Protein: GTP 3',8-cyclase
Amino acid sequence: MPALVDRFGRTHTYLRISVTDRCNFRCLYCMPEEGMQFMDQEKLLTYPQILEVAGAAARLGIRKFRITGGEPLVRPGLEQLIAGLAELPGVKDISLTTNGLLLAPQARKLKDTGLHRVNISLDTLDAARFRFIARRGDLTRVLEGVEAAAEAGLQPIKLNCVLLKGVNEDEIGRFLKLSVDQPLHIRFIEYMPIGHDDENWRSHYLPLSRVLEEAEKLGYAVEQAQAPTGSGPSEDYKIAGAAGTFGLIHPVSNHFCQNCNRLRLTADGNIKPCLYWVDELNVRPALGSQEALEALFRRAMDIKPENHEMAALLAGEAQSHVPTERRMSQIGG
Structure:
């Protein structure tokens, strides 16, 4: 079976699967605090439908799946989907992105059914600031989720920190120290304007060159590091003598589109070739036909743009395509 190769020669081996747009947080960079309209539950793909789409993807060379949301752990029975993905021929890696609030009691079960590793969103190590950024939840429970993931053997554990100018940039040093003291992999991520080009994004956007500047200021000897499993677009570094690593994911200031190997399946059943642009392909008419599903994935290769042009947006320049109006939680991070 031919691999999924787009017009620019990029081979796609990775599918991110959103199982819900709902979330138990309201992070200030992701959605409004009140008034968010969520999908009716009957509009979500069922787990058997997701597995049907994933099976077609696997036959076309997809070897890596990541389960996302919204917050995926708010959807009951997630272990059923993980077990089904683990049974697909050729699948090598199944991971989960979560805010960690519900992870502690589920970590062992998820591992036992086939989950390999987790990325846990953690934008601050300060309890009061956590409530300011997430507008919900409890930092203690998230940290318990990190511990439970380690005890269950979900490795490597990556902590995703979205840096926000004027909000948490003063904690860069604390996160770097965390990578020194514990075998954790910190991922600093630039704030992206997904679904909302507004002043909140422009005022809080911070290029990740700030992280290396802070490391130098603190006197750390930094060297490039071997990427842990599933590192994706991260530029990985290690502080001399550290137990873990840190990485920079900077889609705006230094976009990584030239190496993109991923597609997305939204919770309501659309293949997105690119996170940023509006283009989507609905899978529902193709359900029941593996040939039709495979044709949709090949169509995604035909329409995928070369890059997302977020840097042009920041600079106030014209863009060549139409940006999505969906927020990150509605697409799948």
Remarks:
- The longest strand covers residues 157-163.
- Residues 58 and 90 are 7 Å apart (CA to CA).
- The chain has a mean pLDDT of 88.
- The domain at 4-331 is CATH 3.20.20.70 (TIM Barrel).
